[in-house]
Amino acid sequence: MNDPFEYRRKRLMFRCWHRGIRELDLIFGRFAQAHLAGFSGEQLDRLEALMENSDPDVYCWLTGRQAVPAEFDHDVFAKLKAFIEGAE
After folding, report:
1. pTM
2. pLDDT at position 88, please?
3. Tell me, what DSSP letter sits at residue 72?
4. CA dihedral 71, 73, 77, 83 (to 10 degrees)
């Protein structure tokens, strides 16, 4: 394996497509397809931590119904938000 993060990326790709709520599966799955290959180890850490939250919480953060907690207000969340808003 040339890429030390290949296993993590594959595992995250699966998790992104299988969150539970179909809408978030589509959001996270498409986002992962577009961005995972370029993520650093630290960005993978942040995405994994974000994935540990419940679907309703993440959905509320993405839609602006609730403020994003400080620990998840980072570059990966900003990329995800821009991705669903079509800014990328």
Report:
1. 0.89
2. 56
3. G
4. 170
